[in-house]
Amino acid sequence: MRTISDLPYESASGNDTFPLLPKESVESLLSTALSRGGDFAEIFIQRSRTASIPLEERKIRAAEARISQGIGIRVISGEKTGYAYSDDLEMNSLLDVARVAAYVADGPGTERAIHVTAQLAPDYYAIRIDPADRSVAQKTALLKRASKAAYDYDPRIKQADVYYTDEEKEIIVANSDGLWIADRQTLLRMMVHCLASQRRVSRKGGCGGGGRIGMEYFDRVSPEEIAREAARIAVVQLDAIPAPAGMMPVVIKNGWGGVLLHEAVGHGLEADFIRKRMSIYTDRMGQKVASELCTLVDDATLPNRRGSVNIDDEGTPGQRKALIEKGVLAGYMTDRLNGQLMGLPFTGNGRRENYQNYPIPRMTCFFMEAGDSDPEEIIRSVDYGIYAGNFSSGEVDISNGNFTFSLTEGYLIEKGKLSYPIRDATLIGNGPDILTKVTMVGSDLALDPGIGNCGKNGQGVPTTVGTPTVKISEMTVGGTAT
Amino acid sequence: MDYLEFAQDVVRSAMSAGAHEAEVYIETGSRFHVDVRMGEIETLTQASAKGLGLRVFVDKRMAFASTTDFHTSVVADLVKTTVESAKAAGRDRYNGPPEVEPGPLPHLNLYDPTIADLPAERKIEMAKEAERAAFDYDPRITNSHGASVGSHVGTRIIANSNGILYSTLGTDCGVSCAPMAERNGEKQVSYHWCSKRFLSEMDPPAEVGRQAAIRVLRKLGARKVETQDVPVVLDWMVGHMLWGAVFQALDGDGVHRGLSFLKNMLGRRIASPTVTLIDDPLMPGGVGSMPFDGEGVPCSRKVVVENGILKLYFYDARAARKYGRQPSGNARRGFASLPSVSPTNFYLKPTDIDPSEIIRDITNGFYVTETIGHGINTVTGDFSLGAAGMWIRDGELAFPVQEVTIAGNMLEMMRNVEQIANDARFISTIASPTFKIAEMTVSGR
Question: How big is the CA angle at B321 (ends B333 and B14), to the nearest 5 degrees?
Answer without folding.
Answer: 55
